[in-house]
Fold these 3 entries.
Entry 1:
Amino acid sequence: MAEEKIYLYPIWLRVWHGVNAILIMLLIATGISMQYANPDYPLIRFDWAVSIHNISGIIMAINYVIFLPSNLATKNRRYYIDGLKNIVPRMMRMIKYYLTEQPKKLPSPFPVTKENKFNPLQAMTYSVVMVFFLPVVITTGLALLFPETIVKEVFGYSGIFLTALLHSAIGFLISIFLIIHIYVCTTGKKITDNFKGIITGYHHIHK
Ligand code: HEM
């Protein structure tokens, strides 16, 4: 089978992604442990979970500061901007593909090229996660680290309680994203293709 490879993930993106992936997994594990564990039998010792969560959160926030300007300064931003054009009908087309055509192993209507690395669903979810979920979870996390910065009361509810609620809700949505993200990444021509891509930088196309 003939194979072509295209360079889609520059080194800064791979470093950002790898660091972010490890930190988010630590944040989810320690976050769930703090939220649900019985303090007498914690999943992860409570004081360790707090320290790991705080340190990982701070590094993740610094790492995000690398992601945003690097995207704005390089042509990687084009994949997001172009990927969001005419988004609703293109997303519908992609959903139809996943439901009816991909199980029959038909080719994607939005194949990966040097110009378009994201299909419309990827462009949409990556944009929402990176431009909305991450900034909100980082801001609320930093606010909870310095609770004196949070307003005392909003409509009779404690400001700290509402900030914690928003922080956990977005953390929960990021966890759901991660499960779907990893599953979708396994649906390349070979199960390992996309994972190799984000490590080596090269996306492989089998012809
Ligand atoms: C174990 C954890 C993870 C694995 C195995 C993984 C895997 C991958 C793979 C294989 C790709 C390349 C395929 C593609 O372009 O869709 C990718 C891209 C991407 N991932 Fe992940 N990922 C993980 C965690 C995360 C997390 C936690 C986030 C964000 C919160 C994230 C955000 C992204 C974004 C934005 C891209 C596209 C980057 C670009 O090309 O501009 N990933 N991931």
Entry 2:
Amino acid sequence: MSRPAASLTRSAPAFRKALARWFARHRRPLPWREAPSAYRTVVSELMLQQTQVATVLPYFERWTQRWPGFADLARADEAEVLAAWAGLGYYRRARLLHGLAKAVAALPAPPTTAEGWVELPGVGPYTAAAVSSIAFGHPAAVVDGNVVRVLARLAGHRRTFASTAAAVRVVTPLAAALLDPRRPGDHNQAMMELGALVCRKASPACDRCPVSRWCASRGAAASIPAFAPKPRRSEQVDRALVVDRRRVLLRRHAKDSPRLAGLAELPLLASLRLKAGKLVAVRKRAITTTTYVERLHLVPAAKVRAAARRQPDLEWVSLADLPFAAVSGPHLRWVTELVGKVAGESKG
Ligand code: SF4
């Protein structure tokens, strides 16, 4: 532990008190914080991974109204679950949540400790600590991206971390030493909230930080923590947009597909044995370290009717049914945007 971290650890009781006082005054009234339960915490934590709070809010409300508990979600059909998730991206999380609901519903009661939660399918140390501390008061420290940033700054870590996982390993002992054993759930939420509202990535507001007196980076923290750059790559993807009599041709992924199980997308040109169509749009999207350049080609329906009959993973979906057909979020957006523009051009 660095010297500032060791000194901060000695001040842990005063640190907890200052943080708790600040959190009581400044916490955002988020729906998963009202009447917290294991289920609501799990749903919010999974939705919030890689997604902004403002985007998650309406999804969380709809989701918990439709499936108020683990048992309700466990009984849901996977296609329904994926359709309800559409727009949040990273569908792996939806399948994980569904699988987790089935596992919890099969138990006599949900686990109450981080060690119990981490045994369940798809639950990592972060989610296990969040759920067990917030819903059951179990003393496990949460270390997410916000908390890594706050702790690295408090401890004055000026090294370059190879990865987030490496930074988590370095700061976890400090997180555990600072955790308030009497109110671990509130303490964890306060640390995350401090990172989100005050100790922000590019513009830390040190002048209104409740724990600045213990901070080794106060006033000069924007570059902490530093991470080694990840190599980026770019990949071109050519897809067919085929519209025929108010229907669009989609390819549905198999249920055991690792990334897009059960979801439908615009088919690849290559899978239809086509080289090109009329290029109607180019959309870029970044997934982790890869930028996908998605080129959408308008293809006349006559060119693909035979393939659509032959290939069981291809299906015609009526435009009216698209929002309910478990279509990948970006693809649903592209079709909705482009279908008016191309109407009348794709008959053949
Ligand atoms: S003083 Fe500044 S850098 Fe330190 S924890 Fe507070 S906001 Fe972050």
Entry 3:
Amino acid sequence: MPKALALSPHLDDAAFSCGGLLASLAGDGWHVVMATLFTGSVADPTGFALACQLDKGLSAEVDYMALRRAEDVRAAKELGIAPPRHLPFREAPHRGYGSAPELFSAPRADDGIAADLAPALAALIAAENPDLILAPQAIGGHVDHIQAVRALLSLDVRASILWWRDFPYTVREAAPREPLAELLFALPSRRMALDPEAQARKRAGCAAYASQIGFQFGSPAGLDARLAREEGIERFRLTGRLAAPIAGLDAA
Ligand SMILES: [Zn+2]
């Protein structure tokens, strides 16, 4: 059975950006695991980190990350994939990034998280031994996405990698920032046309991240409208050669 490992920076990115591919692979008999890197709980958050949960309508007493990890478990079920893995790294608001603009600026010089992520990713990849890795292109420029890519690129990886386009940044602006474009643009493009089953599973998987839907999309209907703008297509860049053909995935 071929194996795929999706490396999601946050609890929602993989489902939002390549949930249709993950559901399709699982439907075709692949073993598919989503691993999210920044899922560590931080007790008694303050300042911008606290604001990031208050603006989702969650009081200071709520363990925000535990709630989101539980959403991720439900999302994986909706996608029809294996139970998810959760790495304990802290999101950017807990690493000195103090405002929304800072989350989308260049990584801070004192943010050494990529060096911490790299050995954890290496251990995860060795344990899962995937034939295929899914990872972000960091479109939109969120520092956690950039650091995840830096960590992955620092490793000697045997598996092929499909780099996803980060939704919803892909449809939020006409020309979203692509800070890693020069690393990725020379790679061949791939285009995944989702069948109705995969689209339905993706929609249900995305909706499982209930704490994020209002903030990101206004409402579940807003999620549907944004997903509709992708027109049932997921786009990727490919590193390496695919170990097994993937139905629906073609040269762009
Ligand atoms: Zn993210």
